């Protein structure tokens, strides 16, 4: 990572996961528990163990659900999503302190976008759902670039590469396997759950978090090290 003062003398950009990070629960898992047929857990386990790619697994999961249930899916997601404490204040903090905030989500547009609508976040990267076939088909508008080994679905490292390391301090906030590749190329990681354990195993520079009050406090400390604000 290099010298801390040098790292934190650049513009900060934050790449924040959605499922299990902004929301208290992973909304894909929540949707699957409610709508998917028995046996979907086998695909979830294959994703987490990296036996199959995130892209293959997520596509397979949603192909189990009939497209005719679209309205029920959207209503269920909006009714059951719980936003992690302090997120609204964190969004406002970023706006007021020249911290660029991107939501980089392996989730799906039909629940990510309406859940985040009250926060008026301009940069949301997520996958898309096509309900025109008999079952749901997932589209990948932010697929891997030629520097990624593929299979991400929504490729967080590819989005990060739009912000070169020589010009930006790149900070990742996340919780799961979908955040691991991004965390490996970040200057700093704020993590919980699965991602926290893996980042510790790999010796990445990080801080744990429980809520977005923790995230805000961590970023305040980093900004004091010299990030332009």
Task: Please explain how this structure is put together.
The protein is α/β, with parallel strands linked by helices and 229 residues long. It has a domain at 4-25 and 83-128 and 139-224: Rossmann fold (3-Layer(aba) Sandwich). The protein is built from eleven helices and seven strands. The chain has helices at residues 4-7, 27-35, 40-48, 54-62, 70-80, 87-96, 109-116, 156-160, 180-184, 193-202, 212-224, and strands spanning 11-16, 100-108, 124-130, 137-139, 168-174, 188-191, 206-208. The chain has a seven-stranded mixed beta sheet, with helices on both faces. β2, α7 and β3 form a beta-alpha-beta unit. α3 (40-48) packs antiparallel against α4, α5 runs parallel beside α7 (109-116) and α6 (87-96) runs parallel beside α11 (212-224). The longest helix has 13 residues, at 212-224. The chain is globular and about 55 Å long. It starts with a helix and ends in a 5-residue tail after the last helix. The model has no long low-confidence stretch (mean pLDDT 93).
């Amino acid at each position: 990572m290099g010298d801390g003062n040098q790292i934190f003398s650049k513009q900060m950009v934050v790449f924040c996961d959605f499922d299990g990070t902004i929301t208290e629960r992973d909304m894909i898992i929540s949707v699957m528990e409610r709508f998917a047929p028995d046996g979907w857990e086998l695909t979830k386990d294959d994703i987490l163990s990296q036996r199959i790619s995130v892209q293959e697994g997520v596509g397979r999961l949603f192909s189990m659900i009939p497209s005719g249930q679209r309205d029920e899916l959207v209503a269920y997601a909006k009714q059951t999503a719980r936003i992690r404490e302090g997120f609204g204040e964190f969004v406002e903090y970023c706006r007021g302190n020249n911290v660029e905030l991107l939501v980089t989500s392996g989730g799906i547009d039909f629940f990510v976008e309406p859940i985040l609508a009250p926060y008026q976040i301009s940069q949301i990267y997520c996958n898309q759902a096509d309900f025109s076939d008999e079952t749901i088909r997932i589209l990948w508008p932010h697929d891997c670039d030629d520097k990624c080994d593929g299979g991400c679905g929504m490729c967080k490292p590819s989005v990060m590469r739009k912000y070169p390391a020589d010009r930006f301090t790149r900070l990742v906030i996340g919780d799961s396997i979908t955040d691991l590749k991004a965390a490996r190329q970040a200057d700093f990681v704020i993590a919980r759950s699965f991602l926290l354990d893996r980042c510790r195993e790999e010796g990445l520079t990080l801080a744990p978090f429980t809520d977005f009050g923790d995230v805000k406090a961590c970023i305040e400390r980093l900004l004091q090290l010299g990030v332009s604000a």
